[in-house]
TrEMBL record:
Pfam families associated with the record: Glyco_hydro_114 (PF03537)
Organism of this sequence: Lepidopterella palustris CBS 459.81
Protein name per its UniProtKB record: alpha-galactosidase
Superkingdom field: Eukaryota
Chain ranges passing through the membrane: 20-40
Catalyzed reactions: Hydrolysis of terminal, non-reducing alpha-D-galactose residues in alpha-D-galactosides, including galactose oligosaccharides, galactomannans and galactolipids
Keyword field contains Calcium: no
E.C. numbers: 3.2.1.22
Residue span of region Disordered: 43-78
């Protein structure tokens, strides 16, 4: 139910790429100026050498040391690279407690924490599935049962494309208490892992001056709370802080890295033996063409870096329909509780 924020191309670029582009632009501008004979003094061109832009500017991903959870607990379950999965957030699964099969027959289901019952999660376990429970950790959603516990001071700007949702202050003790209660609920319902969404407010107009450091601090808090219950945690998107927060997460949940040509940012998960649960939203879903599979399931061009990712092709609504990279399609039944 949460989705890709609809940002401009520039806003989506990783910090390192922005610095490189700025440096290239600076070289071009200075080159033109020199070529046109505009009087650049010797001191001026030495003092602002364009090549110094990328090397001297701090990068959040390389100057911050890796974060560690403050819990020595180990997650009871950690997913493997190349695991198969399905994600359905629009509606709860329609899964009778006497069900003996579920479609598709993948090993992991990522479903909404609030709308799915404990019975549904118990039934998934009986069917030998693991369950990742989704909730929005960094945005306010007015329709959630605990929505009245947020204060107005907790809430920032409206999410672009999601008029009902507001960015949350990740440093707020109240917000953190509410998220700890949600993680407790995940444990009570029997979830194996959590998928906390919208932890990358720093990449957006959030109205709260959120920084990458705020996200790193918040993710450290979330992972510690998850480990208190021996739950695994995924990192949702947030490609530019991967090097810092990789130790906090047991997997990645990524939206549209091929579409934005940024799969390389998530490849360190695979190197660390942690899966990347990768979603793309082809515009012609559910009637995909061979060219969609070639584009989103390849490992070169815009898909460079995605080797070993667990890719699903979905509609933006994240309903029960899914297509896998082998061209197999399935529709999970929804509408139960
Ligand atoms: C979590 O795992 C630790 C061992 O890593 C164990 O001692 C503890 O009882 C477990 N806690 C829960 C809540 O299952
Ligand atoms: C709201 O917060 C109170 C106080 O912490 C808590 O008792 C209550 O369960 C919360 N409400 C919901 C719906 O989670
Ligand atoms: C939030 O906490 C982080 C880490 O403790 C800190 O670096 C940052 O300055 C805080 N931000 C705000 C807005 O209070
Ligand atoms: C995952 O799948 C890819 C592509 O088939 C393969 O190259 C890789 O070795 C697999 N990795 C693991 C850990 O199974």
């Amino acid at each position: 139910m949460k989705p890709p924020t609809h940002q401009g191309w520039w806003a989506r670029q990783p910090l390192r790429r922005k610095l490189i582009l700025v440096a290239v632009a600076a070289v071009v501008v200075i080159g033109l100026a020199v070529g046109l004979g505009v009087g650049l003094t010797q001191g001026g061109s030495n003092g602002s050498s364009p090549s110094s832009v990328p090397s001297s500017a701090p990068s959040s991903s390389t100057t911050v040391p890796p974060a560690q959870p403050s819990s020595t607990n180990k997650p009871t379950w950690t997913p493997s690279v190349n695991s198969t999965w399905q994600i359905v957030l629009q509606d709860p699964l329609d899964l009778s407690t006497s069900a003996t099969t579920i479609t598709p027959d993948v090993s992991i289901y990522d479903i909404d924490l609030f709308t799915n019952s404990k019975d549904t999660i118990t039934t998934l376990h009986k069917l030998n599935k693991k369950v990742i429970c989704y909730f929005s950790a960094g945005s306010y959603e007015p329709n959630r049962p605990d929505a009245s516990n947020f204060t107005s001071a907790d809430k920032g700007a409206t999410l672009d494309g999601w008029p009902d949702e507001k960015w949350l202050d990740l440093n707020s003790t109240n917000v953190r208490n509410i998220m700890a209660a949600r993680i407790q609920l995940a444990a009570d319902k029997g979830c194996d892992a959590i998928d906390p969404d919208n932890i990358d407010g720093y990449q957006n107009n959030n109205g709260l001056n959120l920084t990458p450091a705020d996200s790193i601090s918040f993710l450290t808090f979330l992972s510690t709370a998850a480990l208190t219950h021996n739950l695994s945690m995924g990192l949702k998107n947030a490609g530019d802080i991967v090097p810092t927060v990789l130790p906090l997460a047991q997997f990645s949940v990524n939206e549209q890295c091929v579409n934005y040509a940024e799969c390389e940012s998530f490849a360190p998960f695979i190197t660390a033996g942690k899966p990347v649960f990768h979603i793309e939203y082809p515009s012609d879903a559910p009637n995909l063409m061979r060219s969609d599979l070639n584009k989103y399931c390849g490992t070169s061009g815009d898909a460079s870096g995605s080797l070993g990712f667990s890719t699903v092709l979905k509609k933006m609504s994240l309903d029960g329909w899914v297509e896998f990279c082998n061209g197999v399609t399935a529709t999970t039944g929804t509408g139960g509780s």
